Amino acid sequence: MNLKTRLLCCVVGVLAWAPTASAAVSFTVQFDDPAGTYSAYYSAIRSHLIAAGNDWARRFDTTANASINLIVRFDGRPTMAASSLSSSYVSTVNGIPMYEQGAAYEARTGIDPNGTTPDAEVIIGTSHLQNELWFDPSPTTRNTTPVPSNKTDAYSNFVHELAHAFVFAGWRNPTTGALPGNYMSTFDRYMNVSTSPFYFVGPYAQSSYGYGQAVPLTIGNPTHLGNSSPQPGSNLNTDVMFGPTVYRGYRYYISKTDMAVFQDCGIPIKAACFTTGC
Fold first, then answer.
1. What interhelical angle do 102-109 and 154-166 show, nearest 10?
2. d(Cα 278, Cα 167) in Å, to the nearest integer?
3. Rounded to whole angstroms, how far apart are CA atoms 273 and 278?
4. For residue range 71-128, what is the model confidence (pLDDT) as tens digits?
């Protein structure tokens, strides 16, 4: 295996912007759009990605000084996707080498595993960008303007996709659950693939989920949570990592279950985020 291969999920010139932030983990954004075709959207995409990244980073219980470089690309896919552009060895579990996404490694340690090249990519479908996404006029505060009933919230989309770039990703076959070789991701480690649907069985996630059971994963798309016909007690249809659909006119927020999955996969979360909120 080429260890530089990205983890799978579900991924004018280059412009860069670095925000001023108190968080130890910050974000920069650049665009791979040679003709500047979508330059009218750069400012909105940049502000929303930075705000969504900071939404995750303010929850991380780390003192690492890290700058996660995101590169945005455009193509004809129906929605969008994101992935880390490198992976880093963590440990060997039951004889299987385990890797975390490079963005997660950098957020934890402050060490950039791939140097000056981008850490993660976000790929946005052009029709989705132009016809479906709604950009909040105030993405850092939210809740001040209703999301139009015929649009999906771009901020929520970016929170979801960055979760894939950090943690919600792996190499297991989405149908059989089989690993492609003798390696796995931190998310793969806690996938119980002996039943349908698959379940995430990380200890923090099971405790946080609150129903005394493992967390159901989306059938056919198991780096997501929940199914359209939920298991008893499940409330995952409004979770930002819900897999089957995205509701228009709705704002999604990071849940305790989402944070617990991050903690199971190696990114420590501030204790207060599970109790008083953050």
1. 80
2. 20
3. 5
4. 999 999 999 999 999 999 999 999 999 999 999 999 999 999 999 999 999 999 999 9
68, two tokens = 């996660």
CA angle centred on 47, ends 270 and 141, rounded to 5°: 60
**Enclosing H/E stretch for 186:** helix 186-189
Q: What is the pTM of this model?
A: 0.91
128 DSSP assignment: I
As given in the structure block, the two tokens for residue 246 are 């995205």
* Structure tokens that stand for 225 in this block: 């949570």
SS3 content of the chain, % helix, strand, coil (to 5): 25, 20, 50
Cis peptide before 148 (omega within 30 of 0): no
Which of 264, 216, 265, 266 has the alpha carbon at shortest distance from 243? 216
Is the predicted pLDDT of residue 21 greater than 60, yes or no? no
How many other CB atoms are there within 10 angstroms of residue 244's CB atom? Answer: 17
- Closest to 97 (Cα-Cα) out of 169, 9, 1: 1
What are 213-219's contacts with CB under 8 Å, separation 24+?
Answer: 215/257, 215/261, 217/191, 217/243, 218/242, 218/243, 218/244
Geometric angle at alpha carbon 243, from 185 and 51, rounded to 5°: 80
Instruction: Find, among 173, 169, 156, 273, the residue nearest to 220 by Cα.
Output: 173
